Amino acid sequence: MRRSFGITLLYVFLDFITAAISWALFYYFRKSYVENMPLELSEQFYAGVLIIPFFWIALYTLFGTYFDTWRLYLMRVLSMTFKSVFIGTIIIFFVAILDDEINNYNSYYTLIGGIFFIHLFLTLIPRLLLTYFIVKQVHNRSVGFNTLLIGGSSKAVDIYNEIQSLPKGIGNTFVGFVNLNGIDKDLEGVLPYLGHARELDEILKIHEIEEVIIALDRSEHEKLKQLISIVQGRDIRIKIIPDMFDILSGSVKMNNIFGALLVEVESHIMPFWQFIVKRLIDIFVSVIAIIILIPVYFTLAILVKSSSKGPVFFRQERIGKNGVPFHIIKFRTMVQNAEKSGPQLSSSNDPRITKIGRTMRKMRFDELPQFWNVLKGDMSLVGPRPERQFFIDQIAAREPQFLQLNKVKPGITSWGQVKFGYAENVEEMLQRMKYDLLYLKNMSIALDFKILLYTIIIVFKGTGK
After folding, report:
1. Is 309 helix (H, G, I), strand (E, B) or coil?
2. Using one digit for the tens of pLDDT, what is the confidence trace for 112-169?
3. Which residue from 18, 48, 224, 306 has the fewest beta carbons nearer than 10 Å?
4. DSSP H or E stretch at residue 238
5. How far apart are CA 312 and CA 326, in angstroms?
6. 357 with 330: CB under 8 angstroms?
7. pLDDT digits (tens, 9 = 90+) for 198-213
């Protein structure tokens, strides 16, 4: 169900209108009850009504208010609204109110309380009404998320029957099931059989799956790990049946008291606001880098062109976030038609690498054109290095966890690139993967800056592998 865009626009529209009305009411409250002055609609008033709502929309976006809006629920909306209005009020107070002339300091408390409660009240009412409508649609089973059930044991049948018999829907629209051992008699006739688990990748695409429920015994760790790794590389929620240890350890967290007993595999790698900040940093740094490095680009282009026949830039299809392919762009460091015999990884003494290309690789200069990929949104400054499907298939066959790296945008540099460098074979790719998985589990803006710093050191020292 890819229909969040319309609801998201409605949330944004309502928030914009209520923000404008809130500022107008606050202006009236301030002039009439705090400053005891006649109400005059000055330029300051009109500027506030037009500009302040954009500030609030930006702040709400940072808080993730407009992310996956069909899955919002009343308590989450209440919590997010309170936090964002509180922080927004503090910012507006220091930016737009603190330098105003007032009779006494008690007026400051009145002003900050006024803007907080006026904005909170007016914002909450339409938000809660719209969220109530969404929740009602889900509970009535009018709206649901395409759900795939994996497993064919009695556990799979039990969890399916439990979800279907709930008094209120929890958003699962089952499209079929996938079994590890062929068609299961218990589920046959209840749900369509979509295929074997080895066809899972194609099934997820064809049926536009948004949620997967894995009904396997937790003792089947290897199968469970493989299945989770395949699904986690996509924008899909994963839920598994908990065992008694999960329940006792507190791993089972439920947002809905009517929900089935399931553990959701955490999909949020870092707070949503950090993803927004990360993207803003990507855009800002890429624009600045492209402008500043124009002389370097021209110099490297001349060196590449004079080193051997062929184009200056090298374009190649790589796999990006959620398995979506894109074309990476680099300065060419090898002779033309270097892969005429098929996909090959380079080595330290690879004869295909040109003389200038070897130097560029050590200093990472061949990666500089990728600022354009970052600006386009295909890549990020920091993230796991993108690979070709040919090698992804080989690595995933040996270590399915590699597919988890598809959860985020690939990067110009990565923790694996800093610690290990270029991989010369699949074995080295597996070793580098450990660092990238470690990055994935600990993603943060602070870690990105640390990796960028180490990358800059490698560039200046020319010690890259």
Report:
1. coil
2. 899 999 999 999 999 999 999 999 999 898 888 999 998 766 778 888 888 888 888 8
3. 306
4. strand 237-240
5. 19
6. no
7. 788 889 889 989 999 8
In terms of CATH architecture, what is 145-265?
3-Layer(aba) Sandwich (3.40)
**Distances in whole angstroms, Cα of residue 286 to Cα of each of 58, 227, 343, 407, 443:** 21, 36, 30, 22, 20
385 secondary structure, DSSP code = P
Total residues found in the chain within this entry: 465
In 201-312, the DSSP E strands lie at: 211-214, 237-240, 263-265
**DSSP-derived secondary structure letter, 261:** S
Which tokens in the block code for residue 335? 């002779």
- Establish how many alpha carbons lie within 13 A of residue 312's alpha carbon, considering only the half-sphere containing its beta carbon: 12
Residue 125's closest CA among 230, 15, 280? 15
Are 322 and 235 a contacting pair, CB within 8 Å?
yes
Distance between CA atoms of residues 380 and 280, nearest Å: 10
Strand-pair partners of 179: 196
SS3 of 37-67: the string is CCCCCCHHHHHHHHHHHHHHHHHHHHCCCCC
Q: Is 194 helix (H, G, I), strand (E, B) or coil?
A: strand
